[in-house]
Amino acid sequence: MKRIGIQTALARVLDLAYATLREIFDEAAYERFLLSHAMPPSKVAYAAFRQETEAAKARRPRCC
Predict the structure, then answer these.
(1) What's the number of domains the chain is made of?
(2) Which residues make Cβ contacts (< 8 Å) with residue 46, sequence separation at least 6?
(3) For 1-43, what is each residue's pLDDT tens digit?
């Protein structure tokens, strides 16, 4: 088994934490939205993203 250095391990942990925070705060989802709709980042694009996100949330079944 290959051993990795402490710096490499720490870098991986920090990359994972950064990716997790981007998902939690919808930054990654917004980036995917821009790519899928071939749009540059703008106020209009963000408004469309929020509208699409809210519509998707409204369609989900609610528990309790």
Answers:
(1) 1
(2) 30
(3) 678 899 999 999 999 999 999 999 999 999 999 999 999 999 9
